[in-house]
Design goal:
The chain is built from 7 helices and 6 strands. It is α+β, with helices and mostly antiparallel strands.
Length: 302
């Protein structure tokens, strides 16, 4: 719909064919131009005073009708379209938008009031607590003054300083005429409490000694139950066998780097050393020992 409206622009009167209406926020603007590709003018649309129609028996102050369920009130939309009054349409739209914003503002205000009340209660409780603490602190100071606590402690500290038994070599508040700790050199160098406790209860190599003793005890028990396949006796490992050639037959399978390889030695031809069965830790059974006696493979490693 094109409406020709005559308006005054500065010092001249211009006839503008208004092209459209546009709603921005809660306001409605009317846009128009002097012609194609010409400057566009705009103005806010508002409802002008109008006489009430005859024969209508409703309250003119009942404006809640426009904001009540606006999206479902199809009759209201049709009535505004029938009246063909852009100012009325713009004013109704503005009323609906402002009503919604006002309701949101009221809700936010209610929440702010709750927050303000909570904050006020917090401030009140804090002031009361601070007042109570201040009173207790002042009462404590009064009792210390009445008991001359500072003078008595000063006298005791002076006695300790004069007797060279005062402790705390890393802290000293100072006395009149005595700015440094009087007994600083009497203390040993700083050491950790853990180190002092450990040294007082245990030797420095306690852990290593315990591990070594346990290892030696286990090795001794294993050595007593070990069966040597070089000589056929028990009580020593093959690498410590005193007679490794006692069972050599046909060819010698004893390692040349054995501690008792010579002398004396068997003098037999060297044979290829095969990998034998690993020795059992708990000792070998009688059947296994009988089989080992007849074997030619000899292992010298533990």
């Amino acid at each position: 719909m094109t409406i020709f409206v005559t308006v005054r622009v500065l010092d001249r009167t211009v006839t503008l064919p208004y092209l459209c209406y546009r709603q921005i926020g809660n306001k409605t603007f009317q846009y128009g131009t002097e012609g194609k590709d010409r400057q566009v003018y705009s103005r806010e649309v508002a409802l002008r005073p109008h006489e009430a129609p005859l024969g209508v028996n409703c309250l003119t102050t009942d404006l809640e009708y426009f904001a009540r369920d606006p999206h479902f009130n199809v009759a209201l939309t049709q009535a505004l379209d029938l009246l063909d009054d852009p100012g009325l349409v713009a004013e109704v739209a503005r009323y609906q938008s402002l009503d919604k914003e006002l309701r949101m503002a009221v809700e936010v205000g209610r929440r702010v009031d709750i927050l303000s009340a909570s904050f006020f209660k917090f401030i009140t409780d804090h002031h009361q607590s601070q007042t109570t603490l201040t009173k207790e602190f002042d009462a404590c100071k009064d009792r210390l003054r009445a008991g001359n606590a500072r003078a008595r402690v000063q006298q005791a500290v002076t006695q300790l300083a004069n007797s060279k038994v005062v402790g705390g070599r890393f802290y000293w508040q100072g006395l009149t005429g005595l700015r440094e700790h009087p007994n600083r050199e009497a203390f040993p160098p700083y050491r950790r409490e853990q180190d002092l406790a450990r040294e007082a209860c245990l030797p420095l190599n306690h852990r290593a000694a315990v591990i070594k003793a346990a290892s030696e005890a286990g090795m001794e028990s294993r050595r007593k139950n070990y069966y040597c396949r070089l000589c056929g006796l028990m009580g020593h490992f093959m690498k410590n066998c005193p007679t490794p050639h006692s069972k050599c037959q046909g060819k010698c399978h004893v390692r040349t780097d054995h501690s008792h390889y010579e002398p004396p030695f068997c003098g037999l031809e060297r044979g290829a050393r095969k990998r034998g069965r690993p020795a059992r830790r708990g000792g070998a059974s009688s059947t296994t020992k009988a089989l080992w006696v007849g074997e030619d493979t000899m292992q010298t490693d533990d």
